[in-house]
Specification:
By secondary structure, the protein is an alpha/beta fold. It contains four helices and four strands; from the N terminus they run βαβββααα. It has helices spanning 18-33, 86-100, 138-141, 147-155; strands at 14-15, 43-48, 59-63, 70-75. The chain binds zinc ion (ZN). The site of zinc ion has 5 residues, from helix 2.
Length: 166
Amino acid sequence: MACSGDAPIEPTVYDVPKAVEKYVQSFVEEGQKRGVTIKLENLIIEFRSTGAGSGDECGSCTRAVNNGQRKITLVESSLCWGSSIEQNREALVFHELGHCLLGRDHRDDLLSGGAPVSIMNSRAVGFYEACAYPIGNEDECDKRYRRAYYLDELFNAKTPAPDWGK
Ligand SMILES: [Zn+2]
């Protein structure tokens, strides 16, 4: 039987919502700073309204069997994308891009101080968040200083543990 009559394979596309695009651009820039070049092609990101929880329940990355189209689905609920904390939105997108564009799997081990080693952790949230409700304890709850380490680790899993992790 001839194969010439088979349905053509659909070409892959890049289609990312405006609200997410800045995080994708930031991901590319942060990779570039660390010597990792990422081509923005073959990526669909879309929102889904149902589903709630933390960590990995907030998103997923799939690849189509026929044409390899990558697709990230983000959950819109207040526990996921709907959280107003900017850093957590970014970390959620970066986690999924870690799966989809860097081929990373989950990494659930912890630093000796108890913080996750990686934003590829499947359960944790708030890796490098600012204080949601700063009431005079801003120094203790502001974790934004941790972002640089988590991005180093995302693009290079051999990054040594940071001083703050002890
Ligand atoms: Zn995941």
